[in-house]
Amino acid sequence: MKLNDLLRGTEVSLPAELADELVTGLAYDSRKVFPGFVFVAIKGFSSDGHSFIENALASGAVAVIAERPVTEINSPAVLINPSGDNRNLLAEISAVFFRNPWEEMKTAGITGTNGKTSTAHILRWIMESRGIQTGIMGTVGHIAGGRNISASVTTPESLDVAGYMREMADCGDKVCVMEVSSHALALSRVNNVRFDAALFTNISQDHLDFHPTMEDYLDTKKKIFSLTKKNGVRIVGTYAPGWPEITGSITFGERACDTYRITGIKVRFSGSSFTLCTPEGDYPVIVKAPGRFNIYNAAGAIAAAVQLGVPAACAVKAVSSFPGVPGRMERVDCGQVFLVAVDYAHTPDALERVLKQGVHLAENKLIAVFGCGGDRDNRKRPVMGRIAVENADVVIVTSDNPRTENPSAIINEILAGIPKGFNPLVEQDRSEAIRMAIKMAEEGDVVIIAGKGHEDYQILGKEKIHFDDREQARAALADRRYKCAL
Asked: In CATH, what number does 330-479 get?
């Protein structure tokens, strides 16, 4: 592709002598620049791409696009974006370079505070069960054309989104399912993507270290509804407070007026069941994963699948064989007489939901192990402390990913929200906290280890060490002579 074709339609002025330069790739990281690449300099939160323009040119970039004049570098290859918004520009030219791959597939974008990952994976499972090859992007990893790709963020940068979707289309994926974070919507990562189905799960407090207010957070989430294709549909979960009323949307929840109405809910150790009333008829649904929220996730996935062309009866049948998502109310089963589950719940709403499900499941007491991440919204810490003690019989406050914060300081902020009369246990060492919980568990108890879910690491300072709640739980169960495959 010629540089002139890449930048046509943008505000960037291109010198005539560069118009026919052949573009072989794009990069926003100077370390990934090769001869023929265009480097887009972006001022980030921890580093500024403008500091690496010379590196990009030295690596063979045919052009560099800056957000502001760079007087210290005298090169005709340094172009200026008049708008100063290179995140949006990167999305625009990535779409051009990769030829709008979303137009060659059916696409589903899923946003919301909680439930994105489970809903996305259930939806992919439904599509694949119909023989429809489906790619996915999300928190626990991406799959493009059958290739597994590790994920460092829920929704990658716009260049990566377009690149992965092009790989999906070229490798035979007929559907792309994508988790869309509020960061992605705010930072232009999906500006040019278009969805056949845009699904909103729920909204609750999270990311207020990034969004100034809850109103801003919700408004950002709602941007997904402006990204639907001409005949695209908008799907909204109504089962939790704060859901947005979107004209012409399809809804799922427990209201009599919902398009997909959930009734007859039953939740057990071994899983859940409910009846889903759809425009095609009423269907009994079985979900192997325990927890009421998995019912809502399944209902949303079924609604999206139907909109993507799957008969409701087929979608319901597929859900009954869905094995679950790593770290989402994931059972650690070694034959013990109590339930141990690991869940990613790291927000007040998610913690409250998973603990309330624990209450319903427990025949005896509910034991909760949780902490809060460092270098993140500290306003939710006391809220989560209060939620924990108000729902669980035994609470063990521990460390999560403290990052560069003092773990003890984080724990103290959690404890500050706990009302007088409650006496949580405190064990800063997460491994010991998990052992403590499992050691005290008795028949009929439920042990929920919350906060890290699928993560197999812990971030201490700036170092990432191996740590997996599921492995720790199995080791603790082995200590109690339950036979576990470690």
From this structure: 3.90.190.20
Residue 205: band (very low, low, confident or very high) from pLDDT cuts 50, 70, 90: low
**Which fold does the domain 101-319 belong to in CATH?**
UDP-N-acetylmuramoyl-L-alanine:D-glutamate ligase (3.40.1190)
Q: What is the pLDDT of residues 270-316, one digit of tens each?
A: 788 999 999 999 999 999 887 788 899 999 999 999 999 999 999 99
pTM above 0.90, yes or no: no
> 3-97 adopts what CATH topology?
3.40.1390
Task: Supply the pLDDT for residue 209.
Answer: 61
Please report which residue ranges of 320-371 form alpha helices under DSSP H: 348-361
pLDDT of residue 233 exceeding 80: yes
CB 117 within 8 A of CB 139: yes
**Alpha carbons 132 and 127: distance in angstroms, whole number:** 5
User: Is the Cβ–Cβ distance between 115 and 293 less than 8 Å?
Assistant: yes
CATH 3.40.1190.10 in the chain: give the residue spans.
Answer: 101-319
Give the model confidence (pLDDT) of 173-187 as tens digits: 999 999 999 889 999
What spatial distance separates the first Cα and last Cα of the chain, rounded to whole Å? 51
The CB-side HSE value for 149 (13 A sphere, CA atoms) comes to 23
Residue 148 CB coordination number (10 Å): 9
Kindly write down the DSSP assignment for every residue of 275-334, as one continuous string. EEEETTEEEEEEESS-SHHHHHHHHHHHHHHHHTT--HHHHHHHHTT----TTSSEE--S
| Mean local confidence (pLDDT), 389-409 | 96
Q: Which two tokens stand for residue 419?
A: 């009302």
Helix (H, G, I), strand (E, B) or coil at 463: strand
